[in-house]
Amino acid sequence: MRLLVTGAHGFVGGHVLDQVRAEHPEVEVFALVRPRGGAPVPRAGNATVLEADLDDAPAVAGAVAAARPDRIVHLAGQSSVHHSWIDPGATLRTNVMGLVHLMDAVRAEGLRPRVLVVGSAEEYGIVDGASGPVREDAPLRPLSPYAVSKVAQGLLALEYAAPGGPTVVRTRTFPHTGPGRGEAFAESSFARQIVEVEAGHRPPVLSVGNLEAVRDFTDVRDVARAYWALLERAPGGVVPRTETVYNVCSGRGVRLADLLARLIALAGVEVDVRQDPARFRPSDIPVLVGDPSRLRAATGWEPRIDLDRTLRDLLEDWRARIAAHRPA
Amino acid sequence: MKVLLTGGTGFLGKNVARALAARGHEVRLLAREGSNLSGLAPAEVVRGDVCDAAALSRAALGCQAVLHMAALVKMWVPDRGDFERVNVDGLRAALAAAQAAGARLVYTSSFMAIGPTGKEPADESRLHPGHSFRNDYERTKAQADVVARAAAAAGRDVVLLYPGVVYGPGDRTAGNIVVNMIADHLRGALPGVIGPGDRLWSYAYVEDVAAGHVDALERGRAGERYLLAGENVGMNDFFRLLSEVGGVAAPRRHIPYAAASSLGWLLHAWAELTGLPPLLTHEVVGVFREHWAYTSAKAERELGYHVTPLREGLRRTLEWLRSGAAA
């Protein structure tokens, strides 16, 4: 089997590569990454690293032609809601046209891969928290250029799925965290600040945004497992189009205030928490909890890593990252 | 044309450097500090390493072509990561350098990047099947091949060359395995033939391959792959030819794969412990188990590639070895 992972050097990409290497060593992996202009490319296990910018159609086509994948996990893209307000055009170009470049290349080569197109819970937008966890048939009311780009990407991907052609499986992935998570995300920023307090690099005051939001967090390693399970086991062939999309989530909501309290308790530090209005987003959705029933039914997937372990590992990861950058 | 040559101080590289100069090209040689420049008269030597992308890009400026031959051709090194750094990242750096200079890239891959074949010779349409790599050299050359093919498919001016088992007069580097084997045999130091001796290898005479490089530079079609191989001959027939040409009896002993492989494991383990290069590894024995048979018909047709018969190539090689020039 030949697997192409786009965005392979990203947060989730790294975990997908780790997992495939550990559990499916027979799979030949091609890691598509953004070009670094001849600078050394970080290793990706035994994966063959191919450089192509999603915006560069010939480069993407070249990579697909050389890798000839029969499985694709499409993770590459502009993944920040915040950045999508700063540059909506670039977000749409990379997320929408990037998919077009990828799927055009697949079509031009006459390949028939199973393609996992990773979407986002942000596509749901404002949801009615009282009606319980969000199911895949909930209306899409995207609230940011990022969310619009992911809705468009998912719907366009379906247009490429055809009998005798590629099979497209889509996700709407809810927040996920764990080792390697970027510091722009609330829980990772909390963890970083806590570890900095621990190390004596900052006064014991945490600066946070809106703590009332309720989010559904899954460990990134469970998300990587879900992606593999969907790639392998989600039904292909003739399936109603609307049923080819799967929530990837735990189904448990946690208030960010409680998550922060857990992190503080796990680290065992004394800190003051101060809210900083600059950390509020223009469109904070109050409650976003998903229903993973469809994913469970199709693949048998269950999350294996509980939130405490995820948070402990996230703290540990920040300790390592900070130690690496600040020699004692 | 002005050509930046990497790997020009190797066994094949020196032959290519001479062939380029003989055909009127201006050679700028990228060579590491302290590398052996004997037998070379390049127009210009630039000191640098293919692992240093910036140095490579600077060196390529003003050249119309980059001939990227540098590779780590070893059966074992203390740090396996060196194989990726030289064989894969080195190619990436060469691609970037050629692009920045607006130059054509001629990339020297290897028959191993096409993979083992069975008895029927393979042509350029074959891709390495992946997995089951016998050694780090094969793995990283196959990975680099994907990188090179991706660039070719993206429309870059890249020509991909796949020499067979290159032999002939020239430096006794680790890459010149056939001459090393013949020399061992002449001294009576070859313990025997590994395996039954029926596996086909494609023996490519070094001057043919060097000329093929210049032809590919001048006439190779952008994005195309060309095998620069030779006669496909089994080890028993190889030694039979050698005895006919040189009057040296073929080795009588055959070492079963399992025995050679076990010995290879031991020597490999010893090398890992001591950091000293082994004489043989199980990963090398793996190469002896396969057929590596290829046809160069496409290069003959499009580039005018010429295959010197193995008998003639061995005659010239023996003559050179016995003349003392090899010492």
Q: For the CA atoms, what is the radius of gyration of chain A?
A: 20 Å
Which term fits the overall shape of chain A? Answer: globular
Strand-residue fraction of chain B?
15-25%
Mean pLDDT of chain A: 91
Structure class of chain B: alpha/beta
Considering DSSP H and I runs of 4 or more, what fraction of the residues of chain A is helical?
40-55%
Q: Order the strands across the largest sheet of chain B as they lie in space.
A: 3-2-1-4-5-6-10
Strand content of chain A: 15-25%
Q: Identify the biggest protein-protein contact and residues per side.
A: A-B, 25 and 30 residues
Count of DSSP H/I helices of chain B:
11
Level of helix content of chain B?
40-55%
Overall average pLDDT of chain B: 92
Element order, helices and strands of chain A?
Answer: EHEEHEHHEHEEHEEEHEEHEEHH
DSSP strand tally of chain B: 12
| Series of secondary-structure elements of chain B, N-terminal to C-terminal | EHEEHEHEHEEHEEHEEHEHHHH
Our measurement of the CA-to-CA distance between the termini of chain B, rounded to an integer number of angstroms, reads: 34 Å
Instruction: Describe the sheet with the most strands of chain B.
Output: 7 strands, parallel
Biggest sheet character of chain A: 7 strands, parallel
Features:
heterodimer; A: about 325 residues; alpha/beta; 10 helices; B: about 325 residues; seven-stranded parallel β-sheet
Task: Report what the structure shows.
The complex is a heterodimer of chains A (328) and B (327). Chain A is of the alpha/beta class and 328 residues long. Chain A has helices spanning 11-23, 57-67, 81-86, 88-108, 145-160, 186-198, 220-233, 256-267, 293-299, 307-325; strands at residues 2-6, 28-33, 48-51, 71-74, 114-120, 167-173, 176-177, 205-208, 214-215, 218-219, 245-248, 254-255, 272-275, 287-288. In chain A, helix 5 (145-160) links the parallel strand 5 and strand 6 (167-173). Chain A starts with a strand and ends with a helix. The model of chain A has no long low-confidence stretch (mean pLDDT 91). Chain B is of the alpha/beta class. Chain B is 43% helix and 16% strand. Chain B has a 7-stranded parallel beta sheet, with helices on both faces. In chain B, helix 1 (11-22) links the parallel strand 1 (2-6) and strand 2. The model of chain B has no long low-confidence stretch (mean pLDDT 92). The chains are: A alpha/beta (328), B alpha/beta (327). Chain A binds chain B through residues 2, 26, 28, 30, 37-41, 43, 46, 48-52, 58-59, 61-63, 65-68, and chain B through 51, 53-54, 56-57, 81, 84-85, 88-89, 92-93, 95-97, 127, 130-131, 139, 143, 146-147, 149-156.
